[in-house]
Amino acid sequence: MNSSVITFPGSNCDRDMDVALKKFGFKNKMVWHDDKELPKSDLVVLPGGFSYGDYLRCGSMASKSQIMQSVINFAKSGGLVLGICNGFQILVETGLVPGVLLRNKYLEFICKNVYVKLDNKKNPYFKNLDKDVFEFHIAHNEGNYFCTKDQLKEIEDNNQIAIYYCNNEGKIEEEFNPNGSIKNIAGIFNKEKNVLGMMPHPERMIDSSLSGEDGSLFFKNLINNIK
Amino acid sequence: MKISAIITLKKDVLDPQGKVIQQTLEDMSFKNINEVRQGKYFEIDVNETDPKKAKEVVEDMCKKLLANLVIENYKIIEIQ
Fold it and tell me: A108 — phi, psi (to 5°)?
């Protein structure tokens, strides 16, 4: 299985993602933002970081970079595109997934482990996972998911909410919402479910001695689903 | 021709920075504040002499990059 991780100026989770993908069997290529063409890929990942220094709005500049036209075409033809953290911010700026990510409600940069609950397993990312609550890491300043009332209705009608912030038992309550996101939303799919944007970092949870193994479960399952 | 674009948050969008600025102003004894909303201001020198055309170019920039229309409005003003 071939994957591509796009590196933008200011990306800083691209190499972590490369390590994670390779650990679970992907043949990964790093792709520079200024390249025109994507290598043959079964999965494209937009990694976390601070692309273009977060100028203007997080992800706005990266969404217009040269490689993104190929990524958008890949996504529109049904290819799997996963955006983590800044990658999620880039995805919303391209319009591939609805909504925006605002500054965190309490104006703090949040860096901690959180629990998230998967809402929908009828998609290539979560299909066949046998648990619902995962412990992932978040590190962001702009993760406060927002969309219009009409968009929210559409997202809910199409089962596009991918993951919610929750507690270790999977309870989705405002007190477990770290950043003020509408409905505790931590991740969103496009309508077709081939594009997933999420704030938490599964690539930081792939080593039992350093973190936890919930990211390992995610990546192992993902590659099996793609095979 | 210089054109300015003012980007403001839409009414229903939370503006935590605006809230903190308001709080600080109140702490500094500016007491008559109803609300503070923070926005962005751009001054763009467009290589056009026709104000209508110059404004159209800036409007296109606002729609495509400068503003995110999910959360922001824009206002275009001719400076000189």
Answer: -110, 145
Task: Using only the alpha carbons of chain B, give its radius of gyration.
Answer: 16
In chain B, where the domains are located:
2-78
Which among A93, A146, A151 has CB closest to B13? A146
Q: How close is the nearest chain B Cα to the Cα of A27, in Å?
A: 34
Task: State residue A120's pLDDT score.
Answer: 87
Would you state the CATH architecture of domain B2-78? 2-Layer Sandwich (3.30)
Q: What is the mean pLDDT of residues A152-167?
A: 97
Task: Give the closest-approach CA distance of A106 to chain B in angstroms.
Answer: 7
Query: What pTM did the predictor assign?
Result: 0.94
Tens digit of pLDDT for each residue in A172-194? 999 999 999 999 999 999 999 99
Question: For B23-72, how does the pLDDT look when each residue is reduced to its tens digit (9 = 90+)?
Answer: 999 999 999 999 999 999 999 999 999 999 999 999 999 999 999 999 99
Q: Nearest by CB to A147, which of B20, B65, B70? A: B70
Please give the Cα distance from A164 to A24 (Å, whole number): 25
Number of domains, chain A: 1
Beta-bridged to residue A197, according to DSSP, are A83, A188
Name the residue range of residue A113's domain. 2-226
Closest alpha carbon to A132 in A173, A91, A95, A164? A164
Residue-level pLDDT at A158: 97
Mean per-residue pLDDT of chain A = 96
Cβ–Cβ of B16/A93 closer than 8 Å?
no
A107/B66 CB distance under 8 A? no
C-beta separation of A30 from A46 below 8 A: no
Whether chain A has a CB inside 8 Å of the CB on B44: the answer is no
> Annotated catalytic sites of A, by residue?
85, 201, 203
CATH number at residue A168: 3.40.50.880
A180: nearest CB among B14, B70, B71: B14
